[in-house]
Amino acid sequence: MRFVWAVAAFVLAAVMIGAGIAQRTVFQGPKSVATGIAVHDTTPYILIDGAVLNTSSGTPTFRAAGDGPVFAAYGRTADLQAWLADASYESVTVGAHGKVKTTLVKPDAAATTDGTGTGTDATTATAAGTDTTSGDAAAGDAAAGEATGGGDAAVEGATAGRNPAGSDLWLEEFQQDDLLIAPLSIPATMSVLVAADGTAPAPSDLSVTWPVANTTPWAGPLIVGGGILMALGIVLYILGIRHVRRSRGPRRKGLPMPVTEPIDIAVDNAEKGVISSGQTGRRRALTGRRSLIVIPAVAVSALLFTGCSSDAWPDFAGSPTPSPTQTVVTQEGQNDPAVTESQAERILSRIASTVADADTKLDLALASTRLDGAMLAERQTNYTLRTAIADYKAPSAIPTKPVFPLLPEANDGWPRTVMAVVADKDNKTASIMLMTQQDAWSDYKLSYMSNLEAETTLPDLAPSYIGAPIVAPDSPFLVMQPDQVAAAYADVINKGDESEFAAKFDATGDQFRTSIAADRQKRLDEFNATGAQTGTLTFASAAGATAPVALATLESGAIVAVSLTETDTVQPTTGDAVIKVGENQTVKTLAGVDQSATGFTTTWGDQLFFYVPSQGSTEKIRLLGYASDILDAKVIK
Fold first, then answer.
1. Domain end point (choices 211, 237, 270)
2. What's the pTM value of the predicted model, to 2 decimals?
């Protein structure tokens, strides 16, 4: 009976192991599915809609190959379409029945620099509808079907030559020969732009590959269970052999035998010259052979067990239940934020790198590619002074990260504004700055940057993934319109507590106002000590030429960035008096002379950030940060 059970165990083990191995091999199916994208080979740009990458489940892998380096970037579909508004390009979308189709889009004649052109369809080509499957992740090499129609007409009206590399619009970009992006998981609201250099035709060898989740949850239990049954069968087989050997067949009854004495076999054999190992030796030998049979069976089971990966076992744990998190509700109709956190850090790094290079070379044209408004005006003066004065100090470097917090404008159009607070670990300070992008083809430019005051508390801001709307300069929903803040604060600086606007601004912790008052008094005392009999020194503050920018906060208030100018005027009071600048190399360089019979004006530029509460609030307007630098010095005419 033991042999019967052993054979049954062997047969069942073979069936179970075979079934488990078959699930992991011949019955498992392909590991990936790939589809080719058919495009014309004459357009400089290809726009692949995010829905194309989501036509199959799983995380897609995108491949693009051409004759040289391949460029690819992804971003919001509306942004990419705006960037391509004045160019011909291939639009790859998902058509009826889930088929991938290619449409030639020609430039819109009405497309302008506001980036709102939409383009017009010209030719449609449907990609080969047959997906290719492969057991290898390299199935992305599947050949793309040939596009039909269009031909050479695909480039008609194209605006080629604009290289997409380095644009601030892209959330992420890639460039290399035989480009492979794995994984490339984007929502349907985003798209992928593929090009060579904007002049040469875009790569036409495009494919998308998705992994196929072919789990075999019972392969592991079958293989391991079969191994256990095989070991059990071997044990039963050994026990059967042992039982047969012990039985020695049937025993017969014989005639009565005389009683004899026990024979000492060892002595008898010794007398005959024979050495016998005895029955104990035979049993030990049999036991040793059985061990050799059992050990390989256990080893085979262990090898089969270790060969099963996690997808070969049932998932008894199930999917974890996500814990609830606090959410911020987006206002109905609100647009998407202008940038993401990683995008903002990349843009800041590019600005800082370009400006640092311009500062080294004293290249104002280079600086103007990344600076605007008050920031550019201050750089212009600094370069002039450093050209004439050898030891004049260079501007401080622009900090890049960490960014905390980030407040992008929620805007699908242009211009777009982004506010960021960046820490400077070296100087243990923090800077608040505003960047603006004028249109889809422009880079972001830094227009305002100030140092936060030591005890500054920022108001509550919307998360960076939601953004904030821009506040109109003449908004009546704040305690003061943004376009009036600069002039009102300048009046407070000029008149102090006697100003009609003094009660609207919080003087607590306003170090800027305090430092201006102390500096003016010090210089006035010094001037009066030597020149009060022959001249006058006056001070005046006024709103700057740079337009104010305001972003909304969660309390319906706004962070407002403004510019001010501070002007010092020195004039003689008698006809015989002459105003000399003395050792002041800054004024001498900017004015071009070291003395004047009419006097001098020296102008400083201030960049200020305020928190302006909402209408009806009991809070006052608070100064958040400030920066000041010389702008100009002139002879009074």
1. 211
2. 0.75
